[in-house]
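User: what does the whole thing look like in 3D?
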Amino acid sequence: MNLLEVRGLSKSFSGLRAVSDVSFNVPEHSLFAMIGPNGAGKTTCFNLIAGVFPPDEGTVALGGRAIIGFRPDQICHAGIGRTFQVVKPFPQMTVLDNVIVGALNAHRDVASARREARGVLERLHLDAKADHLAASLTLPERKRLEVARAMATRPRLLLLDEVMAGLRPTEVDEMVGVFRRINAETGLTILLIEHVMRAVMALAQHIVVLHHGEKICEGAPEAVVRDPAVLECYLGEGAV
Amino acid sequence: MTGAGPGLALRAKVLLAVLAVALVAAPLYTSDYVLSILILCLYFAYAGQAWNIMTGFAGQLSLGHSLYVGIGAYVAAMFFVKFGVNPWLGALGAIAACAVIGAIIGVLAFRFGVGGVYFAILTIAFAEFTRIGFDHLEWLGGSGGLFIPVASRHTMDFLRLRGPPVMFFYIALALALVGLWISAALLKSRFGYYWQAIRENEEAAQALGINVFRYKLYAVMISAALTAVAGVFFAFYYNTLFPEQIFSMGRSIEIILGPIIGGLGTLAGPIVGAFVLTPLADLVTELMELLGIDTPGVKQVFYGVCLLVVVVFLPNGIWPAIAKRLGFPPPGGHS
Amino acid sequence: MPLDLIVKGVLTGLVYGLGALGLSVIYGVTRIVNFAHGEMMTAAMYVAVLLFVWAKVDPMLAILPVAVLAFVFGFALQRTVINPFVTRPEHTQFMLLVAVAMILVNVQLIVFGPDARNVMVDYQLESFEVGPLIIDKARAFAALAALAVAAALFAFFRYSLTGKAIRACADNQLGARVVGLDVDRLYALTFGLGAACVGAAGCLMLLLVDVTPMQGPAYTLLAFIVVIVGGMGSLPGALAAGVVIGVSEALAGFYFTPSAKSMFTFALLVLVLLFRPQGLFGRRV
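Assistant: Here's the predicted 3D structure for the full assembly of 860 residues, as structure tokens:
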């Protein structure tokens, strides 16, 4: 079953077509990656799904329900959690409190939100830092906090915006392991925008490739990596 | 957040117990003059807490809070002087009026994305607008002032709040405690978490499912409603209301000094700030009088210097710097 | 006679505009909101009063010494106290300047007392007759001087090397540092310039009104409103908005009551914040 259905998504900024008639489906419980060179329109696509701004054309449906035109907080209530490319922790709050904020999306009272938050922190190996201020965390830890917070909202779909950026290879591998485990244990559907191919190849079950705002390829990782159109957009005409 | 700390150390509990006893028994051993200072401390502690909810917890800077003190005062005074309604009922009207005004300001500002410094200026403008408005409102005394008939010292009319300073002391004490209790309850509730999230990063807060507009509005309205009660107290304690004084920018600044110097966004900050600043300011005034300097403005310069020193050297306020040493959990967790 | 009023409003408004220019320049470059603006203006007015009383210096001529003094004060203040706060959160900066404002206004209160002071120049009560219009000489001179100072400021930013450097800082602080500009010094320079504008505006204001210490906060608020209506960081906007507010004040003061004129200004502020928050000339961020 498809959890997320994107149909004919288009968005222009001041006449520049950032995203042009993009359609794809994200199957439930899958690990789905969106890749493409810089300026391909990945972030715009991401923001369209996350409700940051409305599309010019096209629809997005989550579990069959249209979510076009929803505010970001409504998107979260509908079941999509997202991280930010430039992490946005709540610096003067503790790590635990940061995640409790997320958990309150799915829990009525603070006590059960706190229990959920502790559980999520454990999964992301941040429980040791629970009582530390978020401002004191290192970058990889902040990235994990960002993910923990989004996960605590009990989403059906987790959107990750270049979450591997700035991480060392060992840290990337660690994150990949965390996502694999979460997906296997809880069935959480993950859609990630990524540049770091190491992570994409290790994680993704499906890949969609964007270039100049259009979808140029879609499929399993092995097939996408060999597709001539993809090779051309990454390596240039001469390389094909 | 004073959430997951190890709790109060023994010395903190002892300190609190001693302070509690000292305060409750104060009228027994202090002079009328000291009692009046304590009343002022408690008043600013309460008003500061009300302001702290909006600015400290939710991060919405209000520099025109004298608006709510003034409206609260005038509404309750109006009910009493013009309609004979006792201040306890009048306070309900004051609370309602201020909640509505807060809602108006909040809706206007937040619907249109007015935040930060612009929002602060907006709050000043509303307060100033009201000040000038009341100056021309002859029905409530205009610039000449509104007066509540004072009873003799020996009456004890609790219903109409006519009585000796002792009565006002306990009312102020109750107010400060209620303020503390409400602040604490709000802080550890969903409101507290969501407000702090909004304060720290609105965009991230929204992505986590928080209706930022609605929660900002709650913060403004609750803060306004609580501040209204401070206004009611002010009206019936001082018995004279002048628009020039009660709606003035100086009054707004007075309210916020305590929380800022004590510790913005903390629970104890406004209380610590009020109890440090008020007696100190009074000491300065006394000192000046002793030296024969009787100029207006000395106290304000003192306030200004205090604010400057704290902002430069202790940007988080006094309380976070001393909380641990006194055995209390540090506000906001460990670094 | 409305035309007289409008002219009066325009002339007064130009002086408001000059004052607000100082605020706008400082904000436009350093992103610091100078909450002590009005208090600096009244301080300048008091200095001009002293110069008049001690040395019979016409406020128009006092512009130069007062502006220089204000420049030095602003430069020093930014360099020593304010600079560390450029990177701190907004409300902390605000509080710092609130503290400075409190100290300034009350020191003035202590030194000069609460009563109003003013100057009476020879031409204070004279006026020009231009057709059916009667224009106060003092007001006309003040407005012309305001325009002159504003023009000098524009020229400085447009054509001088330092002016361009400052504009570079405003556009891109990091980029400015990368190309080797001493951003800290340029910030201090900007604050000094902004203060000098305020100083000049104060001298001119003295030709139009009395000075009391308590006017400080009122001038701060007025300058903010002018800048917001005109657009934060827009120099022509500050002048234009000053004129708009000057005219609205003049009309409101006449058709309603003098004290009601501020109420209209506030109403204007609220309207602008709601419907065109970037101001008349500002760019939407």
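In plain terms: Residues 32-247 of chain B form one domain. Residues 212-238 of chain B form the longest helix (27 residues).
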